[in-house]
Amino acid sequence: xxxxxxxxxxxxxxxxxxxxxxxxxxxxxxxxxxxxxxxxxxxxxxxxxxxxxxxxxxxxxxxxxxxxxxxxxxxxxxxxxxxxxxxxxxxxxxxxxxxxxxxxxxxxxxxxxxxxxxxxxxxxxxxxxxxxxxxxxxxxxxxxxxxxxxxxxxxxxxxxxxxxxxxxxxxxxxxxxxxxxxxxxxxxxxxxxxxxxxxxxxxxxxxxxxxxxxxxxxxxxxxxxxxxxxxxxxxxxxxxxxxxxxxxxxxxxxxxxxxxxxxxxxxxxxxxxxxxxxxxxxxxxxxxxxxxxxxxxxxxxxxxxxxxxxxxxxxxxxxxxxxxxxxxxxxxxxxxxxxxxxxxxxxxxxxxxxxxxxxxxxxxxxxxxxxxxxxxxxxxxxxxxxxxxxxxxxxxxxxxxxxxxxxxxxxxxxxxxxxxxxxxxxxxxxxxxxxxxxxxxxxxxxxxxxxxxxxxxxxxxxxxxxxxxxxxxxxxxxxxxxxxxxxxxxxxxxxxxxxxxxxxxxxxxxxxxxxxxxxxxxxxxxxxxxxxxxxxxxxxxxxxxxxxxxxxxxxxxxxxxxxxxxxxxxxxxxxxxxxxxxxxxxxxxxxxxxxxxxxxxxxxxxxxxxxxxxxxxxxxxxxxxxxxxxxxxxxxxxxxxxxxxxxxxxxxxxxxxxxxxxxxxxxxxxxxxxxxxxxxxxxxxxxxxxxxxxxxxxxxxxxxxxxxxxxxxxxxxxxxxxxxxxxxxxxxxxxxxxxxxxxxxxxxxxxxxxxxxxxxxxxxxxxxxxxxxxxxxxxxxxxxxxxxxxxxxxxxxxxxxxxxxxxxxxxxxxxxxxxxxxxxxxxxxxxxxxxxxxxxxxxxxxxxxxxxxxxxxxxxxxxxxxxxxxxxxxxxxxxxxxxxxxxxxxxxxxxxxxxxxxxxxxxxxxxxxxxxxxxxxxxxxxxxxxxxxxxxxxxxxxxxxxxxxxxxxxxxxxxxxxxxxxxxxxxxxxxx
Length: 976
Fold this sequence. Notes:
This protein has about 1000 residues and is an alpha/beta fold.
């Protein structure tokens, strides 16, 4: 759309239509007439289409319309231009007396807001606009009543929730809310028609509406149209960009739009070109490979398969730990983006910790990526603690700030630190307008938790924005084996929508059960996919084929490839170890007699702490390190960094202990940490997770034949404990049963039996045995000795009942499947959860977990004053963070407040039960600091503060809490 001139919409309207108002500032008295806001919104929509909407999204909308791209652009501009037509009704206009009086002076009669009473709520302006636009299409353009809703729902849903059929019916029964009866009603009807006629002419659709009346819009297109109207409205509603009258009344249309768009300064989407080089050259260029490094067979095969596919689709990459799946995914994403027109990438990971670890890798890739180098592109880290990540903070400092970030939005961050800024070849920014909790995923390149993707399958307000965010990207899903039945219910539904949007998807896993792979492929393809005739069919590939690539396009049949393994192999000897702390200590003392680094993985934090206590008594504090999830955020990050410094890859890790050392960890050691140990001790766990743990054993070559490791540790070994091996059927410890359930643990033990018998001495060969073990554990074929049969059957029935319960509970708020083309989105998110985000409440909606309590941990000194935790290290700029004063009579300094916020801690399961949680909240709220609330203290406002005494202890809800930077949080019941 060209620049709006003074002869635009205004010139097409008479006095009554010009008097209709749209926006009002109760504090400053400013206002906007409806014609002005509609003109602004349409102009923004046109610029978004031309300069911000990815090619993939434009193409999906265009292919449904007879005029292609031109029709699609005109439709988006027109829908944005009429989105607030519902404000030309008595139900809306009566809200501001002085503006309503002006309209009455022009013949638009209406009762006062008080006189209308509660019935006025039956006509929210979005729904009213949908009804008015539908009537106009029927009466003025002869559309069938059944064809209007698929277009008008973008107007009805522009505040985040498409109307339901009952709401539409109720409004039709109260027509006086749209226009009063009698002669006054005729004036309203004329003004409403005049506005819609003017918009059709002004935005160039008058001659197209006849053809559009025969169109059946697919539901994904209806979602995208709604989302684009929402984004356009949010931008055009920002008074920093589009000032109110009367001050701005004299500014020309062209100057108003140019100033707004320049002030917004949205980065344009990435436009990928298909790389013309081979795999070796591409990987060397994108990932800075050393001169002697060779691309791995899985990476080369994945790139080749992406190039051979009929179009961008879904690819599942199953390959061992350490095989470069992440690099393969990004290379495939580049090809997929070039072929699909995707304007960015979303990399979804299982946890905030893995998201933080991935973010700098994503930035490094972007530094070398054509179409990003030297360009300005938007980047985001999408999880609830992102503003505490220093790499992301650096990007936010470059992104500027827009004071008003959007309707229903809060930024939540101010006064950001920029120490140690990471310089990038590309001008990567965390754009200010794209930081709101509902808009962050609209950035071009995003790393974040899987929750952000699963939210696209949760019926919630502004869901259309989440769909727009992923519809224009390549989506990479890492650690696909890590998601349980509850999460998979959402993931499968999201994949079905991604397939409908033709969004390219790359799924990564080292240990994916075959049945789960088939479910993922079928969900995306839109049917129960069978291998294509004449291609490598499933029956031609052994059930334990590994590595394995599977690819499918939406509506198509899967293609499978079995690339060669890289040739790297680790043989891991597995043996039973009785579950006793002294037994463990004795064994480690013998194994580490000549030095070496051992990793002990426990299934619960309690077992981690119990184990560490005994091992410290035996080996000393300096030889034992603890790692688990119950550390404050900043300590957890420091723990991960310390593990990488000491136990990371040769050439990168600089502090590997010269003598013996033991790391006792929970499941945090399973994923995304590139650490390498000489010996592994693990509690019995599901076999796919055990294989992940084994991936931290002899992960890197240390000398010929591992000669740099101690003599007795040059053969990789895993000691399997956490269960009573002496019973007829293994009896896992209680904590493991609570975490994983008996059935997965017993099947894991069963498939490991051939490797556990002392006579067999058969090691687990990585990667050769990975698929055999995983498919055996998760298949339906009976496993284990005959005398295990009854116990396994009992455990199976309990487990299947649990999974059914998970699936049923997840389905309550799950989005429906894609409906038939032409069916309006009415009721699309009905009976949903309202607003959702990556808060503790939001995460609980897409994960099968109890709602947890999160606190900010500070220290209370003996004089009653509060301070940040005393042991915190300086930040990147060398500024002290430990022991900073947190005054209770004023807002703390930005550094002190941000430092305190970085000490967030999720309290353990004991505090998730309703009665205990209520008691804990009541006790925590006793430390309420009024000076820390409100917009002037965004880091600490609304946070629950847990104050430790100078011995780092406190009591809460009947429990004693003790915290240390060495061991994290320890919780015990108070003694009676």
